[in-house]
Amino acid sequence: MPEIDLPTVIFALVALFVAYKLRSVLGMRQDSERQSGGLLAPLRRVAAPPTAPVVPPDAAAAPAPPPATDRWKGVAEPDPAVWSGLDAIAAADRSFSPQAFLSGARVAYDMVVHAFAAGDSATLRNLMTPEAFANFDNAIRSRAAAGQTMTTTVVSIDDATIVGAQLVGAAAQLGVRFAAKLASVTRDAHGVVVDGSPSAVADHIDLWTFGRDIRSRDPNWMLTATESASGAAAQR
Fold it and tell me: Which tens digit of pLDDT belongs to each residue from 14-70?
């Protein structure tokens, strides 16, 4: 029978224990990251970029910032007033990213449209200001009182562009124009279609306004107002 090397056995057991603990810690980190953020995560600001490394004097010079005329190209309309507003917001909030904001706004559009159709007031309350929520909630209550149900599907969001931007004091506001394709139908208590179509897909142009107090520790942008292309309140 071979002689057992006790120190080797002890070392092996310690190594196995350390490997197990390391794997469990990494696993818990992944779970917490996957569950973090909550309902409003899509509208959260992105983290501020890390501090740039020190460049030796003889290294190539860093590229100059893009000209003011190109800075917001691709995310906002080429409107001097809109770009000036974005400049002001970005200067006051260094973590502001219009690309990340628009990505989150698209998700919020999908969530709000579906929640409104489903009568999910709890979701809507967490995504918008009390004033905006009151309008949606009143429409949901009126629909329920009439015995009607609504089904809406966001077929696609074809475009989301910032068309308004301003900073008044600490209040930042961003207006986003959405171009989307929706399939929506409203039925009465007997299942008869009273509006829309269960199969037709319609183009929608909506202007939504989001706001945030840049002094607040809360990083969420909230929906403050909605308008359709005709300028009427968006109560689909």
Answer: 444 433 333 332 333 333 333 333 333 334 333 333 333 333 334 344 444 454 557
- Side-chain-side CA neighbours of 76 within 13 Å: the count stands at 26
Report which of 39, 40, 49, 33 is spatially closest to residue 216, judged by C-alpha positions. 40
Q: Which string of b and e fits 135-156 if b means at least 16 CB within 10 Å?
A: bbbebbeebeeeeebbebebee
Two tokens, residue 28: 């818990």
Distance CA 102, CA 31 (A): 27
> Residue 32: enclosing H or E segment and its boundaries?
helix 6-35
SS3 call for 2 = coil
The closest of 60, 57, 86, 88 to 73, measured between CA atoms, is 86
Q: Residue 23: what pLDDT?
A: 34
d(CA 208, CA 161): 10
